[in-house]
Amino acid sequence: MSERWLPQTDHERAVMRVLTSIRGMSDAMERMHSGMKGDMDMNATDVAALRLLIIREQQKRSVSPHDIARHLRISTASTTKLLDRLEASGHVERLAHPTDRRGRVVVLTDESRAAFFRIFGVRLRAMREMALRFDEDELAIVGRFLDDLAGAMDPSD
Amino acid sequence: MSERWLPQTDHERAVMRVLTSIRGMSDAMERMHSGMKGDMDMNATDVAALRLLIIREQQKRSVSPHDIARHLRISTASTTKLLDRLEASGHVERLAHPTDRRGRVVVLTDESRAAFFRIFGVRLRAMREMALRFDEDELAIVGRFLDDLAGAMDPSD
DNA sequence: CACCAATCGCTAGTTTAGCTAGCAATTCCT
DNA sequence: AGGAATTGCTAGCTAAACTAGCGATTGGTG
To answer: Mind listing the pLDDT tens digit for each residue in B9-47?
Structure first.
């Protein structure tokens, strides 16, 4: 996360500290996600698929098996099996695509959505409350930083 | 990431935006990590192990197979196999522990370290340069936010 | 408008990487 | 000194990814 680059100035040392915080946060995030795995007892990718569905649902965007394959970077064949598992366990349904008869639309079941928020509601609330302790100006700075960070990490060099 | 909680005030809307940025950044991070996977062609946990080794090396802390198992949340048996793979591909060496004759110390090979920085140096530099565009006060705010965020995500309820 | 290429989701069979159980060697704790 | 705990390993099993390829459907082009 920091190579063999030696910070010289106070400013550079501050950057160093922030990079360390990013790493800490990223570790915490990974622990949270792998925690979901245990809590809902399913494997990591199945949980990741569920997260995608939750997010897309809130954006009112439909999700196809192909979307899942792309997002999780697994083959469409593996995605079929993943959906078989999620369907068998009652987490999702595969509906006919309204216009393309080859396609499917994957939707969450009510139970699955409820389970998700039952388990992660606590953390989501904790995160919101934490963020509320920062004023609007501070949140703007943080938001800008996070967006820039996402940009810097993106492989679109 | 945001439930069906409706932000009312400007402050709440700012929190909402920041939570969205967190998600975006977290997605970018995941893409970056799974990108490493492709670039160095090895699997996700093997790359995660390599990252642990890089980090610990910079902290001048030695790494045992047990440490790896704990960090990756896999069994020690799986860790043995993981190390077999990394050793076979020339990424690590297993040395004798200096004092505990049961233990091993896992160290990176020079080639592996070089490959890591060859591939991720670009991104690390981009991240540092991005962070440098924020002044020290801003970095302090961001750092505090990230640390709090890590705390909020932690399952120590 | 007819056809061919591309896309979608799926099945079959293989490989990879995790798991549990248990073991020998060593160390720690009284 | 002696039993309990710890370390890393092997063996065997299982879960979940992969590749290859198929039928159905769609869209673009001559």
So the answer is: 999 999 999 999 999 999 889 888 888 888 888 999 999
Cβ-contact B68, B26 below 8 angstroms: no
Question: Distance between the two ends of chain B, CA-based, in angstroms?
Answer: 18
Give the up-direction half-sphere exposure of residue B127: CA atoms within 13 A in the CB hemisphere. Answer: 28
**Each residue's pLDDT tens digit, A20-76:** 999 999 988 988 888 888 888 899 999 999 999 999 999 999 999 999 999 999 999
pTM, entire model: 0.87
Residue of B nearest to A5 (CA): B125
B9: which 2 tokens?
Answer: 């005030």
Separation of B135 CA and C1 C1' (Å): 66
Provide the CA A3 to C1' D5 distance, Å, integer. 38
B155 versus B83: the higher-pLDDT residue is B83
**Which of A151-155, B12-16, B85-89 is predicted with the least confidence, judged by mean pLDDT?**
A151-155
Question: What is the pLDDT at residue A45?
Answer: 94
Q: Determine contact: B142 vs chain A, CB below 8 A.
A: yes
Per the rule left: phi > 0, alpha: psi between -120 and 50, beta: everything else, B104 is beta
Give Cβ neighbours of residue B105 (< 8 Å, ≥ 6 apart): B62, B63, B64, B94, B95, B96, B97, B98
Strands B104-108 and A92-96, sheet pairing: unpaired
A114 touches chain B (CB under 8 A): no
Query: Closest Cα of chain B to A101: distance in Å?
Result: 31
Check whether B157 has a pLDDT greater than 60.
Answer: no
Cβ atoms of B83 and B69 closer than 8 Å? no
**Cα-based torsion angle of the residue sequence B116, B120, B124, B130 in order, rounded to the nearest 10 degrees:** 180
C-alpha B117/C-alpha A41 separation (Å) is 36
Residue closest to B109 by CA, chosen among B94, B123, B93, B126: B93
Report the protein residue whose CA lies nearest the C1' of nucleotide C27. B100
